[in-house]
Amino acid sequence: MWIRDARLEEAAALAEVFWRAVREGSSPYPEAARAAWAPEPPSAHDFAARLEGLETVVAEAAGITGFMAMDAGGYLDMAFVLPAQRGQGVADQLLAVLESRARARRLPLLTTRASLMARSFFARQGWQVVAPDPVTRAGVVLDRFEMRKPLAASLGEKGRAAEAGARIFDNPWPGSLATAR
What we know:
Elements: E1 2-5, H1 11-25, H2 31-37, H3 44-51, E2 55-60, E3 64-70, E4 75-81, H4 90-104, E5 109-115, H5 116-124, E6 128-132, E7 135-137, E8 140-142, E9 144-150, H6 157-163
Parallel strand pairs: 4-5
Antiparallel strand pairs: 1-2, 2-3, 3-4, 5-9, 6-9, 7-8
Helix pairs in contact: 1-3, 4-6
């Protein structure tokens, strides 16, 4: 598996990962909640716009298997893995790369609004629930949680990623969805 920065032309593939993760892999949520969360597959154009300005990394192993996106302030905005890849360390490696980049920028903490399903993943990674943060979509209340992780002294990107077994590369692709580091 490779962890690298996303490319603009991969917006359709990222939208597909998002769609499948929500619609096929969000088992704690009933169908009505999944339909409210993602009523239809997002277009590549809309998804590229959604990721604009976010530092987005992808996991690749015979195609994109997951991605995470973080803003410059350390807010983890999106974290999705294909259902068949869950439990394979994909999310661990993606998070390790973004966390190490945040440490390198000396950000004091990472924050997110985690879904019911993602809450336990983040808790295993040392994140703490700050407060419940339910959201209503299409008249359906979705459970989610405001979470944070204080960051200690930086190990550096390559050191932290190596701890998680990730192989990372600097972004050689111009036009990337990722912001400059």
